[in-house]
Amino acid sequence: MSAAPSFDDREGSLWFDGKLVPWREANTHVLTHGLHYASSVFEGERIYSGRIYKHKEHIARLFESARILGIKIPYTEQQIFDACYEAARAQNIQDGYVRPVVYRGSEMMAIAAQQTTTHVAIAVWQWPSYFDPAAKMKGIRLAISDWKRPAPDTAPTAAKAAGLYMICTMSKHTAEAQGYTDALMLDYRGYIAEATGANIFFVKDGELHTPTPDCFLNGITRRSVMALAKARQIPVHERHIKPEEMAGFQECFIVGTAAEVTPVSEIGPYKFKPGKITETLMNDYLEEVHREKSAVEI
Ligand code: PMP
């Protein structure tokens, strides 16, 4: 089996603390606050045909995530906005993934981190949009995780913070070990929340149902898909959804920057048949991300 090259061992350069540096030299010390105490926030964006989709919204969320954690980013939003394109150009990438990450440095190695500096890195790598509609329409299978999304007074749930992903990786590993592709996570009250890195929608009698994002990320893709559904006069119900309601849903799909719109065929004991509404929104979303100017307001 030929493994993909490790992410620290690639050609080219990435943006690190204000300038482009050789990819393999973009290193940080092991005594980094971000590594030990999860004082780190990040973004995941896609660049389509040379344009980063909803770039402004992603950069605004990065700054908001940092603000929530009390991390001061020593750049303006415009500088980070431009730096992402600089990093994409440096790698000559038209279609790929953009990963900005912000973390606290090594000046202090204890819980308190008042004197730490803030580091920012932006890496861009090749990741063409996966589009084989027939294969995609088969749908993926999700396990139901035992881990619950925490309450907003238990963790900074509105931030895209590294620490929130600990239970996502654990959930995903358990699901994969059982032959599933991903996991559905419930929230601290037992309502349906989201997948490990994507939001979720269900279809019932031609209408969409999606959980209220009151303890997990209100994803940018989620909001685009809701706007696309409204443009097609498909009603969208944003509400608390109990797991047992899945027995009455006909279609299901997950949405996110990486997942785009991905049909789901199975969640634990519940079965779905990816159908017309899923397919329509999957195609509308792909058209939308390739449009010169976004047609949907989020
Ligand atoms: N939830 C989680 C946990 C995620 O990691 C992501 C991906 N960023 C999403 C939802 C979807 O967010 P977006 O559509 O903004 O990528």
Task: Offer a concise description of the structure.
With 298 residues, the protein is of the alpha+beta class. 26% of the residues lie in helices and 29% in strands.
Provide structural commentary.
The protein has seven helices and 16 strands. It starts with 12 loop residues before the first strand and ends in an 8-residue tail after the last helix. The protein folds into two domains: about 15-125, 2-Layer Sandwich (D-amino Acid Aminotransferase, Chain A, domain 1), CATH 3.30.470.10; about 135-290, D-amino Acid Aminotransferase, Chain A, domain 2 (Alpha-Beta Barrel). It is of the alpha+beta class. The chain has helices at about 35, 55-70, 75-90, 135, 165-175, 220-230, 275-290, and strands at about 15, 20, 40, 45-50, 50, 95-105, 120-125, 140-150, 180-185, 190-195, 200-205, 205-210, 235-240, 250-255, 260-265, 270. The mean pLDDT is about 95. The structure holds 4'-deoxy-4'-aminopyridoxal-5'-phosphate. 4'-deoxy-4'-aminopyridoxal-5'-phosphate binds near residues 194, 216, 220, 221 and 222. 4'-deoxy-4'-aminopyridoxal-5'-phosphate binds near residues 44 and 257.
